[in-house]
Amino acid sequence: MATKKVTITLDESLVAALAGAAEEEGIPLSRLVAGAAERELRLRAGRAVVQEWQAEHGGFTPEELAAARSEMADADAEYLSSSRTSAA
Questions:
Q1: Torsion angle (degrees, nearest 10) of CA 61, 66, 67, 73
Q2: Dihedral sign for Cα atoms in the order 20, 72, 48, 46
């Protein structure tokens, strides 16, 4: 994968927090920041898909939103449970 060096300006306390998080994960700071940027782009793409769907089909009902939140909470709980097991 080709890379490009860029310069960005961040608050010093944010840089310190990010550096600490990267060190905890054992990854370079640039990889941590790149991962955050990639997640942001995926979220934006997901929001665009949802907006497109809603433009065609109408907004989600409160029931649909509640069901989606429940499914996401279940998936989060399952993931966290399995990640704790594999870390042990």
A1: 150
A2: positive
